[in-house]
Each structure stands twice: as structure tokens, then as C-alpha cells.
Amino acid sequence: MEFxxxxxxxxxxxxAQLPGIGKRTALRLVLHLLKQPKEQTxxxxxxxxxxxxxxxxCSRCHNISDEEICDICSNTSREQAVVCVVEDIRDVMALExxxxxxxxxxxxxxxxxPIDGVGPGQLNITSLVEKVKSGQVKEIIFALxxxxxxxxxxxxxxxxxxxxxxxxxxxxxxxxxxxxLEYADEIxxxxxxxxxxxxxxxxxxx
Amino acid sequence: MEFxxxxxxxxxxxxAQLPGIGKRTALRLVLHLLKQPKEQTxxxxxxxxxxxxxxxxCSRCHNISDEEICDICSNTSREQAVVCVVEDIRDVMALExxxxxxxxxxxxxxxxxPIDGVGPGQLNITSLVEKVKSGQVKEIIFALxxxxxxxxxxxxxxxxxxxxxxxxxxxxxxxxxxxxLEYADEIxxxxxxxxxxxxxxxxxxx
Lengths: 206, 206
Known about the structure:
Two copies of one chain form a homodimer. Chain A contains eight helices and six strands, in the order H-H-H-E-E-E-H-E-H-E-H-E-H-H.
């Protein structure tokens, strides 16, 4: 791409660093900003800079938070001894949206992935293991995505906490509500028949 | 969407103002920036701010440019009396990529579109009409997209310049190279048979 302006080229190149944004899309976004009032660009730039500069993580669960302790961890009406292990803040938001989970979270900040160069040391695993060893935790729920990386991470943590008196569970895998059985993949269908639950339980929350 | 941090919420909301970026995508982009070194966010923010602050437009063709007169307008080896009328810088870049056009451009900055609240006054039309009236221009080529807005804009300009001694042309519409005739829409196919060209001309640039 040949640009008539170095300023434009620089802005497009920086925008195109974002995941899923190619050069054409970046150009479209930058040209859009040029057509809007200056304030919009200033607000965007300031919001990004402030976030990156002042970002804080809850010292207990490592979720993004503006306070030392996040709203969820400091909510005493939640079950303090149940901890759900998730990858990032999006999973916390998704689980919170269900309105059905009343325990706390532990945000790992990623999954163990040798291909992407992410080892256990870069994740918030040590603090989770310490939390369990301190005896404060009654149940750990693994809620990582069911990929090879997710399974590896689960197992890595499992090995370090299994000798403590803690219940270790994982979220249920199965056919999604509303899905047709015939279109489900074999592994999911297989798991959902193996891990079947009493019918009374199944109709409880529907 | 419920956010655990006001800073995060603000950044996501600003990012989601961009066209084609929803809240989910915005969150993904912002979380990506959080995982990258601080410098990346700073470079992006600075590039956007600088562009918006220092942006200049060529005083002749209104294309984005870092100089008073852009590279194309100041290139004396180009045909100074042929002016191609386009909507924005992307069209200039696309035409320049062909390597076949050696004249100058005139960037309107949009199309007349009452629905989007864009009237002729917001576009660079007056300077184009003056350019023609001054007698410097031998040929005007309309290269706006063939939508109702494009046609309206073409016609609006045409009415103001038609009484001058200037050739007024429009880029050829027809079946794209490589396209099958049977899948072409009727209007395009109709135009391409009406506006047929001598075969010798057709094979000249292939």
C-alpha cells in the first residue's frame, strides 16, 4: 500500500497491529476518525493510554479492577470458599451474566501454550496453589476452554493441589441447550451420556 | 455488558465507536493491548493523535498530504490538464495502483447524500468548478462509485461545468475481467454492450 502521507501511513500501520485488523480495515477506521470531530480521536487515545497506564488487577483474583480488591472478591455475600478458575476477564463476565454462580474467581491470565511461548510462570498459578494450601478453599472449579492448552493447564494445576483437602470439579460439557443431537460431535455427545445427571437436577434451573 | 473496571469500560466504549467494531470486538482489541508492552498502546495513541492534529490536505486536489501540494500534483511529468474526480483517498490509491493513469485527481471528500446529511456545501465541489472555469482543465473524468449518491454527485457537478470547453467523461462500467457473463447483473451487461469499444482498443492494455 502506497500512502500519500507519512502520518496516515503510521496511523494505519499501528492500527493494523491489532488482531483481526488488516491494512484495509485500518485505513477505513483511520479515515473514519478523520471525518469525525477531533474530540473523538482524543477520547479514544486518552482512554487507551489511561487504561494501559493505570490498569490494576485485583490482588486476590487477578481480575481487572479499579480497586485493590475487586467488587466480586469484596462482596461478603458470595461464597468465599468456592473458586472458579478462568482464563481471562471475558470468562468472568460470561459467568457473571448467567447469574447462577455465587462463588469467587481466579483469573489465570492465559493458558499454558508452548507454541505461543506461554509457560506456567507467566500465569497466576502460584497464588492459586497458595490459596488452596492455606486451607481457605473448599472447592476449585476448572472453567478453562476445552482445548489442548486448557486441558494441559487444568492438569498442571490439578497435580499441585490434589493432595490438599479440596474438592476439584470442572464445568459440565455436553450438548448445548437448543442443539440437535444429530449435529453434535461425537466427543461432546459421548461425554454428555457418560456424565448424565438425575432428571430432577436437569429440570431444576430451566 | 458489565465491566469490573471503569477504565476498561471507557476504553471499550471508545473503541466500539469505530465503524464495524462492536463491543465484543472492542473488548478483544483492548485486552490484546493490555497483554502487549505499554509502548504499543503509546505508539497507537500518538499516531492517531498526531494524524488528527497535523493532518493536511493538498491545496490543489484535497488529497491527504504532508505537504502544501501533494506528490501527485507537484509531479510535473503528469498530465496537468486531466483531472479525475474521486470520493476519497482510497480511490486515489486504487487508481494509482493500476499504474495506468497519468493525470491529476480531485478528491471530493464524499458524495452528496441527503440521508447521511451530506450536501454539496460539505464537499470540495466549488474548487473543482473554479478549476474548470479557469480554463486549466482539458478533461474531467468522473470516477465515483455507481450508486444513486455517486450519480447524483456526478450530475450536480456536470450541470455546473458543462458550458465550459472541457471534455467530461466517466470511467467505463462493464463486466469485470475474469467474470462470467451469465452471472453479471442485467444493468452492467446492458451497459457493457451499449458502450462496446473497438476490439483493437480492448486488447491494447491486456
